[in-house]
From TrEMBL:
This is Transposase. Signal peptide: none annotated. Residues 232-243 have a biased composition (Low complexity). It comes from Streptomyces sp. SID12501. Residues 232-271 are annotated as: Disordered. InterPro entries: IS701-like, IS701-like_DDE_dom. Residues 13-282 form the Transposase IS701-like DDE domain.
């Protein structure tokens, strides 16, 4: 049991590595402002909601965009802190589309967004979320950079993109997030990946499988899979042991059966499953179709490598993941509102938003250091 309210100064733990007292002080101001400011979280409005100081917006600008503090230690400590206060049923990796005007925000590009049904000007972030009883808590981020942002020296210089940061696919960014989570998590829960038309499901499955992780990945109905021998009629010959791959949606439609797990409560998604073989391999997996309406076709398909003894857990995670809205709480706290144009600035802002969201979700207060105004 944890207290309903716990005053945890950012300088005490999450921002303890910051070398200067003024940096720790402005971290507290920024967090308090994110939580207190209604509507758009501009630097001026964040500052005004916390302190009457006329120089506060400039100080916050310096703290986020120009101060050289590292964001990854904060995120690693945030992940540990969140895991101490709510059990992790899964680590969820999810794309978050951030619509933008203009072409100057780091990583901005034109992208078709299936959820919107149209092409938009946006940034694409990949978030890592601790999924537990309190919902999804953001603890880490990657920002997708199209090739023009990594290959154009002028753009790199203007956005202050680190020299070691090159182009990576969305799947590669997800795998990098999973690697960081695995390093700080003694007992790694399943990794749930929402692909949402932005992440190559086959590539991320191959990477997670190679790492020996348990995973549950949303897959397109076109993903080629083979039916496992245990899911179909007994094979008449050896060739039938290795059936030709076909689209996942077709396999599920012809071979689906209700799960053996306890049925979900009324109003919960309806699940249908079948045993398949992983892409380009012979390892067994479970294909799960989720329907939330009276339609013949499932709303979403999931693939998981969790073994039969843990299938109940996989189905429970899938049932809750279907209605999950990863990134919504962070958007409400200003994730989309960052007006700066630099790569370090975006990452620091995303880090502060994540810390503010965790404080709110966990019922904790943010303490300001003395003389924060």
């Amino acid at each position: 049991m944890y207290p309903a309210k716990e005053c945890v100064p950012p300088a005490h733990r999450l921002f303890a590595h910051l070398p200067r007292a003024d940096q720790r002080r402005w971290a507290g101001v920024y967090l308090k402002g994110l939580l207190a400011t209604q509507g758009k979280k501009s630097l001026r409005r964040i500052a005004a909601s916390v302190t009457p100081s006329p120089t506060a917006p400039q100080s916050l600008q310096q703290f986020v965009n120009d101060s050289a503090w590292q964001w990854r230690p904060v995120r690693a400590e945030l992940a540990r802190w969140a895991a101490e206060h709510t059990a992790a049923h899964a680590w969820t990796l999810s794309p978050v589309v951030i619509p933008k005007r203009g072409e100057l925000s780091v990583g901005v590009h034109r992208r078709f967004v299936p959820a919107f049904g149209r092409t938009v000007n946006c940034q694409l972030a990949l978030g890592a979320f601790l999924s537990g009883d309190l919902g999804d808590l953001a603890v880490d981020w990657q920002l997708y950079l199209p090739r023009r942002w990594t290959e154009d020296a002028r753009l790199r210089r203007q956005a202050r993109i680190p020299e070691a940061t090159g182009h990576a696919t969305a799947a590669e960014l997800c795998l990098a997030l999973a690697d960081r989570l695995a390093r700080i998590t003694p007992e790694m829960p399943p990794v749930v990946v929402h692909t949402d038309g932005h992440i190559d499901a086959a590539a991320v499955i191959e990477g997670l499988q190679a790492r020996g992780l348990d995973w549950i990945v949303a897959v397109p109905d076109t993903l080629p899979l083979s039916l496992a021998a245990s899911a179909g009629p007994h094979p008449a010959d050896a060739a039938a042991l290795h059936p030709a791959p076909e689209p996942a949606g077709d396999l599920l439609r012809r071979h689906a059966r209700p799960p053996t797990a306890t049925p979900l409560a009324p109003g919960q998604p309806r699940l249908r499953t079948t045993e398949v073989l992983l892409p380009a391999g012979t390892r067994p997996a479970l294909l799960v179709g989720v329907r939330t309406a009276s339609r013949l076709r499932p709303d979403r398909l999931w693939l998981t490598n969790l073994p039969p003894a843990r299938r109940d857990r996989a189905l429970a995670v899938i049932g809750s993941a279907t209605t999950a809205r990863a990134g919504v709480a962070e958007a409400e706290l200003g994730l989309h509102d960052f007006a700066g144009r630099s790569y370090p600035g975006w990452h620091r802002h995303a880090t502060l938003v994540s810390v503010a969201s965790a404080h709110r979700r966990l019922g904790h207060e943010v303490c300001l250091a003395p003389n924060s105004g």
